Amino acid sequence: MAQYTLRLRRFSPETRPEPWWEEVPIDLDPHRSVLDAILDARDRDGTIGIRYSCRAAICGSCGVRVNGRPGLACHRQLGEAAQSSRDGVITVEPMGNMPVLKDLIVDMDAVHWAKIGQVRPWLVVDRPAPEREHLVPHETMVDLTQSMACIQCGACVSDCLSMEVDPPFVGPAALAKAYRFVADPRDAASRERLEDLSDNPHGLYDCTHCFNCIDACPKGVAPMDQIMRLRRTAGSDHGIEDPNNGQRHARGLVDNVRRNRLLDETELLAASYGGRLNPRLLPVVLSSLPALVVALARGKVKVGDLVRLRRRRDGGLRRYFEIVEGRSERIELKLYVSGREDDPGSPAKTPTAAGTSEDAAPSAPGSDAGRPRSGTPRRS
Amino acid sequence: MHAHGGMARDAEGLRTAHETVLRLKEEAGNVSIDDRGRLFNHDILGVLELENTIDVAEAIVVSAKERSESRGGHFRTDFPERDDGTWLRHIAVWSDGTGVPAITHHPVTVTRWPVQARSY
User: Fold this and answer.
1) ipTM exceeds 0.90
2) Structural domains of chain B in order of their starting residue, each with its CATH number
3) What is the pLDDT of residues B45-54, one digit of tens each?
């Protein structure tokens, strides 16, 4: 047996208007879970509130923050939690981004489930049912399993930074769920879903790539990866315009290099805003005039650059474009690698495994054959 | 219930189980709760679950004692054989408000599949 101390964030609006901290001594073995410790404390004080059910990281009920990190209370061992704590005391708080109802219980209905409901989490079917069953290619199903692994615990929602500053953001869990249906060949509303999520200012392009959801997820769903795949599907497969400049910027950069061999940044700015004649560009140019004047004065930019009289020679670059763009299937680059350096299962050590042509060649469109981590449980 | 009220049962084990359940039923009348609130009151939930669990346990033990034969998942080591002559009937356990469960027997209506012994 070992001695631990839990520092519980308590809140009971019926008896006290303000939350408070409470320290509880725990006498359990280090391999027991933080949830076991909370339930042990509850045996002595029946007023402690926490949702739980399976105790085995399957049901997704006991989402909390342990030492500031979101996850399942039943999925953290006491010994590890005490070690990772700054002062040896295991701090347990309710999840973030959702109103606290009582102690460790947050209002999942008001936030998480409302957002899941926004993305129409069901198959939209527009044709009669097949006689036997609707077959889906194996690779497509494998691709979907990652987002299907979600157990709706809310850990990613808890620590989503975009949602913190923009509460209406659809958020990581719901967008991962949206990918599950967008990428399902049986779904008849994929394009409609992508259009809705692209038009929604709190939708697809509201994510800022902070990785918090990837680190939070106890099931390796990697919601941010699913959001990026939604974006690629919307932009590349459906030609749905990104209301921000990101997609135009990326395309502008490629076209720019194709034409100029080296990057011409003055031209890139225009491309990002939809071209030289696009009215969106004017205020940007006006606001950057002072910087431009200084740059001209110091010789960092030449007048010739602005009007682009010179055209650089190709220099063999065209061949690279031909090779890359000549592929019949899209290579899903695994750009978003997360994990810890000291984790032997972490993909951070093997970034070269991602996106090589050998790995990606057999992938179906939209699948992510280059991903090294899929199926590998994350250790935390 | 695991030790005496599981798949394999006999009269003596069921008597022990029944005594235990009755003792727990009596003790359960003395439980108290810490939480007096109306919000996520798991304390009350625990008491309700305890009461219901004891009710179900009592019904299982009482009906298992009643059925002196073996049938399906009910295996009496002291009555290993099926006895359709006496026991091709339902046993119902009722709460009639007296605190002691009432036991009634009901005929079995055989429809599409005739009752027969299974062998594995």
Assistant:
1) no
2) 8-82 (1.20.58.100)
3) 999 999 999 9
